[in-house]
Write a structure and sequence with these properties.
- The structure is a single chain.
- By secondary structure, the chain is an alpha/beta fold.
- Helix content is about 35%, strand content about 15%.
- Strands 1, 2, 3, 4, 5, 6, 7, 8 and 9 form a nine-stranded mixed sheet that branches.
- The longest helix is centred in the middle third of the chain and has 18 residues.
- The two termini are about 30 Å apart.
- The mean pLDDT is about 95.
Length: about 290
């Protein structure tokens, strides 16, 4: 693996290339992106594609990539520009892309703005919370975990976030009537370290989950777009947003093994099924539905 730093006007972007360029098989490189997950989250999945040249990167202000724009917010538009800049810097032509969570939203923005950058996009569980029928309630639930974080710190915010993302079905009054999530019950710290800069728990990434894909631009692009969902996510929010995104784009959601982080092994908590996930991703990239 080789690591590079790309200096742009707004950020110094760190990216990794596993494998040769030009690629040994003549196939496009496979670019894996997330948000707020950085490149470290894709180590298990990348290792399961030894035959491919795999690119990963840290979004601006996350992991090893530093910002120079004086801002702390995260937007799909800025991140799309950054991903485009990395693709150009690699110089291997269009890429295939696996994008997860907020990275899946970034990837949809890439396809809309830079339609020749990506040949096939597998967008896994984009958390586009305003697309579901209960979008206003989802926005309210998002504000509640942000408020818990602001008032009581990381453990309280993360506990509230887990309660939200594990809730099955629409966010009804029954959801909002629950007592505050107890961080100790989730094995999370109860003390407040005073920090309030978490990109997931603060409102710094609300522009990501508020994003509405440019359907016309995506339809006009030559990119094959696949919206994917983990089989364990069918009834929770990211599964429901995946179905809503697929419907918005006029397709059915494609089912993958495991859950929202199903491509990870145990280093990030609840382990997924990276072997099964990689097999399914390989099938889908090769054209299977």
């Amino acid at each position: 693996m080789e690591t590079y730093t790309l200096e742009t006007a707004g950020a110094d972007l760190v990216y990794d290339v596993r494998g040769p360029l030009p690629t040994s098989d003549g196939r496009a490189p496979l670019f894996m992106i997330g948000q707020p997950m950085d490149a470290s989250g894709f180590a298990a999945l990348a290792a399961r594609f030894p035959e491919r040249t795999v690119i990963t990167y840290d979004p601006r202000g996350l992991g090893r990539s530093t910002r120079k724009d004086g801002r702390v917010d995260h937007t799909p538009q800025d991140q799309a520009d950054d991903v485009h800049a990395v693709i150009e810097a690699v110089g291997a032509g269009p890429v295939e892309m696996f994008a997860s969570s907020g990275g899946a939203i970034t990837a949809l923005a890439v396809v809309a703005k830079y339609p020749t950058d990506v040949t096939t996009l597998v967008a896994h569980e984009p958390p586009l919370i305003t697309l579901t029928p209960d979008g206003p309630a989802a926005v309210r639930a998002r504000a509640e975990f942000r408020d818990a974080y602001e008032q009581r710190g990381w453990g309280a915010g993360m506990a509230a976030f887990v309660a939200m993302t594990s809730w099955e079905g629409e966010f009804t009054e029954a959801y909002f009537a629950q007592p505050q999530a107890d961080p100790a019950a989730f094995g999370m710290p109860t003390e407040d370290d005073g920090s309030r800069d978490d990109p997931l728990l603060s409102d710094r990434s609300w522009a990501v989950s508020d994003y509405r894909p440019d359907v016309a631009a995506i339809a006009a692009a030559p990119t094959r777009v696949v919206i994917a969902m983990g089989e364990e996510s069918a009834h929770v929010q990211t599964g429901r947003t995946s179905v809503a995104t697929a419907e918005l784009l006029g397709q059915e959601v494609t089912v993958f093994p495991s859950h929202h982080g199903g491509f990870c092994d145990g280093e990030f908590g609840y382990p997924g099924k990276p072997d099964e996930f990689a097999r399914r991703l390989r099938e889908v990239l090769d054209g299977a539905s």
